[in-house]
Structure formats: structure tokens, C-alpha cells
Known about the structure:
By secondary structure, this protein is α+β, with helices and mostly antiparallel strands. It contains 13 helices and 20 strands.
Amino acid sequence: MNSTTVSSISTHVGQEVELKGWCYNFRSSGKIFFLQFRDGSGRVQVVYSKGDLSEEQWEALQSLRLESSVIVTGLVKEDSRSPSGFELEGRGVNIVQIADEGYPIGKKEHGPDFLLDNRHLWLRSESQWAVQRVRDQIITSTYNYFHENGFVKFDTPILTPTSCEGTTELFEMDYFADEQGGPMGKGVPESVHTSTGQKAYLAQSGQLYLEAGIMSLGKAFDFGPVFRAEKSKTRRHLTEFWMMDAEAAYVEHEENMQIQEALIIRIVKDVLEKCAYELKVLERDTEPLSKVQAPFPRLTHAQAIAKLRELGSDIGDKDDLGADDETILTKEFDRPIFIEKYPAEVKAFYMKRDPNNPELALNNDLLAPEGYGEIIGGSQREDNYETLMQRIREHNLDPEPFQWYVDLRRYGSVPHSGFGYGLERIVGWVCGLHHVRETIPFPRLINRITP
Ligand code: 4AD
Ligand code: MG
């Protein structure tokens, strides 16, 4: 007997195989029993005829309930009517566990709160299975793209003594004290001393540490969970999400955007090729995805503001773009768009200024089409020691904990740039989902930390 998986039954046509998984649905019509089977790799129908089974096996089938775990054996047959293209002529069944009665997730429409409360079970639904597989492909394509282009994976810390993206969205905690009951290590600022040690913060982005990494490795990327205590209750915000930061030495603003463009094109191309079935399950219109080709249109922040005003917005010259502004802009184009050179004053301290206009940052956001909005934020970094120190002071940041970071500008400073993407935003866009909460296995939102 060949023990195999649904994803590879095409190589077993005419043979009897064994599959291990779950029964996600069933129906019976007297002498025929239809068992809807899934094993993680795919789904297939197993058709049992009473005459082919022992009395005992037939009785066992009648006791099945939704989501029972089963090992089935059967003959693989081609079947053009079934979505998988195959069907199993059932020969045997071994019930591993009969599921309790009342599996909560059924065919009827459930509200989002009910589904999120049952997230541990909802993950088994075919749509959620498809989303997680697309997510995995996007992660794989990202690693492949970077490894093929000379970037090294570099793991940045999650527990940090400072903030990367501003101090208003930090998750804070108490960290250990040293032997004298004081803060740990050098460079811990007074402001975070506590009576029992010091405060620590969950990372918002690995970028600053990645900048240290590239001075050793040249090009590097990190990929991991980041945390933002944002009080935003929108379809784009999570409090814990996965960010990929990339950084490269001797790369300037222009080339930084070319890397982002090539990465996104690669991701979308791979998903279209390798996740066609998943996109079908999700009823994703692939037409807009097939238009994700170079070159991505570019607007300066000033041009974006002008365009928004043309479209009726009253946005100010120096305003950052809000989610609604991004949605409006992306609907004007059929592919992702770069918005570059924002007013430096609304952006982070580490961004290098445009030599042609020091009021502007050498930065960009990348907005996904179809109203999805920002998926990437990036910039060239300030590489001059004096200027960077001045920016830290201008942003009212305590220079002490950034000492190691400015040190990078004292020993062999080079022009360098990087960017970070939000994995869930990309998955949401590629899958065509309304809300990012479905893109991560266990979403953390301001009003949800369970299951
Ligand atoms: O634009 P952000 O804040 O950029 C940075 O953190 C830089 N340090 C990255 C870098 O240059 N290496 O965040 C990057 C991306 C955003 O474009 C967005 O896709 C995603 O992270 N993001 C979120 N995704 C889900 N929930 C949130 N609360 C998010 N905040 C940002
Ligand atoms: Mg941003």
C-alpha cells in the first residue's frame, strides 16, 4: 500500500493508496457514502459503496462526525468533475478519533467575531488554508529573492532599550536589574531607569540593528515579528505583525526603490504561478495582479498632494498621507505606486535629506493598488555623524541609547538605504482580503489577544 498525500495522488492513478487526514464533510445516500477528505496538502472526495466494505467498516463510516480524524484507503481515479481532478474509490477506513458533536464552524455565514473566537478551528477552512499557503509562498519568495541577490539573513533583536519608529507606539516592560539593582549595560538612559532595573521595549522594526549588520555583510535582511501599540482600529493595523527589513551598503535612494520593485514583482509572479489553486479558492481576480510589472509609477509627495486636491481632498502641503488618501491615490493606477520625498519633518530622524531640497527626505512608501495602500516604507539613511546627532536632538530623542547607532557613522560610514515591508499587508493585498486579521494565524489587535 502506498501511503501518500492528496497533493501527489496524480502520480498514483489506478493504484490503491492510503491517505491520513480529516473528514471535513460527508453525505450518505443509502448504499453510497461520500467522504470529503482533507490532509493539509489538498482535498479529495472518497466514495464508498456498501458492497465494497465489510459490515464493520460501513458501520464505522455511519458514526463519523465533522472534523473526525481518519485514515482512508482507496483506488485513485481521474475525475474531471472534481476540483482536484481526482476521486478515490473507497476501500477502507480507519477512524483515528470521532470528533465531538457540534463542530462550531459550519456552512452558514458566521460573523467575524465568532470566527476569530474560533480561530484555532477556523484555520482549517479552505479559504484560511489558502491564505496561509499564499503567506508561506510570499515568505519563500522573499528569502529566495534576497538570497539570489547577495543579501544575508541577519536576525535583529526583539527586546530593545530604545524605539526605532517613534515613541508613541511602544510596548513597554520591566527588564532586569544589574547586581547593584541598577540598569543593565552601558548606554541605558536615565529616562528608562526604574527602581528594579530598567524598561525594555518590543521592537517596532529591526532596521537600526540591520544598519550595523550591513557594515559587516554589505547586504542583509531580517524577518520577524514586530510590535506596535498603535491605537488604530483599521483594516490595516495589527499590534503584532511580521516585518521584513532589507538594508544595503552603497545603495542610494534610486536603487533602493529598484530593489523594492523587483522584490514585489517577484513575489506576485511566484504567487500567480505557484498558488493558482489557492487564489481560485479565494475568488481572487488575478487580472490586477498580472499587471504588477515594471516600471511602477512614481509620484513625489508634492505631486501626490496635488493629485489628491484635484480629486477633492483638502490635505495640507506637509501632511503625511492617511489611509484614505492612499486608497484614493492607488485607485488612479493599475499597479503599485511609489510616493517619494516626503516632507522630512513628518518622517523619522534617520532619513537622509534630499541634497536638492533639504526640506525633503530621500524616502519612499510603496502603495499597493486596488485601494490597499502602504505595503513598504523605506529611505536612504543619514550617514554623516554630525548631521545624525543633530537630527536626534531635533526629534527630542535622548542621544544616549543611540550611541552605538551613531558610532556606525564614525567608523567607515557609507551611503546606504533600506526598506521594510509589512507581510500581512502584502498577503492581504495579494489574496484580495478586506482585513489583515485573516492573513496571520493568530491576529493580535487592540481589542483581541485570544486565542
Ligand atoms: O513604514 P514603517 O513604519 O517603516 C519602518 O518601520 C522602517 N524602519 C522600515 C525600514 O526602513 N526598514 O513600517 C514598514 C511597513 C509598513 O509599510 C506597513 O506595510 C507595515 O510595516 N506596518 C504594519 N502592518 C500591520 N500593522 C501595523 N500596525 C503596521 N505598521 C506598519
Ligand atoms: Mg510607513
